[in-house]
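Homework help thread (please don't just give me the answer)

Our assignment gives two proteins as sequence + structure token strings and asks us to describe the second one. The first is just a warm-up. Here they are:
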Amino acid sequence: MGVYAGMEHCIYGEPRELLTKVWVQEQYLEYWQVHNSEPARYEFLWGPRAHAEITKFKVLEFLAQINGSDPRSFPHWYEEALREEEQRARARISTTDDPSAMASASSSAKSSCFFCPQ
């Protein structure tokens, strides 16, 4: 892709600013300092807009495609993506039974660290 830290890219601009400011401001990402990290470390979490606009499974399929592999080649992320798909399916089923559950289903899509294996 030709995107490098500290170098301006003709499409994406400066990557650090794109990640830590633009996408955070647009709520695609959340950017937090890891508690008790010395020296300070930071993590990126999915923001509410990312949760609303795309699934982890779609991101994983794209990652596998550009790497010429299968989503199962990334077992940790694959399992997490499957869990999210199951949660989304359960939320859809429960909202058809109880329209007031829609608010709680969307708020339960809290940020999670998809590309940060524990």
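The one we have to describe:
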Amino acid sequence: MEILLVNDDGIYSNGLLALKSVLTEELDAKVTIVAPTNQQSGVGRAISLFVPLRITKTRLADGDYGYAVSGTPTDCVILGIYKILKKVPDIVISGINVGENLGTEITTSGTLGAAFEGAHHGAKALACSLQISKDHLKFKEGEMPIDFITPAKIVVKVVKKYLDQDFPCDVINLNIPEGATEKTPIEITRLGSRMYTTCIEER
């Protein structure tokens, strides 16, 4: 199985690495990481039309290599499919995002934007996000003091069902509650209303 793994939190996010580890181990999959060089939360499905993009082969904390892209999560999907893999993967997985994507603001989510782009090119696509109550962690880069292994195992459980049962949809938006275990029931539901209020900070 060929998996393209992307995110919007950046290539050094330990959520990305935890998911790669569990996907590789439990699905015996070939996982290729193509992720933004820097934090790209809130960019939605934006693509880079007027600036050159650089792809850098990057050594990860587990000793393997991924590809860092100087662009958006959507850029990562496009370059992953057409430049790095040179084919459409079995599934594009975006995450694990630091922070939930539960409201109508998902259109601004880089995590969801990457999944939408994967589906647009004919791949099955899944966006996965972990609820985080500590807001100061949501837009950090790099390693964070969060257990991503259990959420990664939940993602794999959903991926197995998605691929085996051929869910009738192009994109699954999976949100994992803080403190969830592998025994936490999985529910199919609908988006909530707005999660955030709009504010402007003048300086």
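TA reply:
I won't write it for you, but here's a hint about the kind of observation we're looking for: The helical segments are 14-27, 73-85, 110-120, 149-165.
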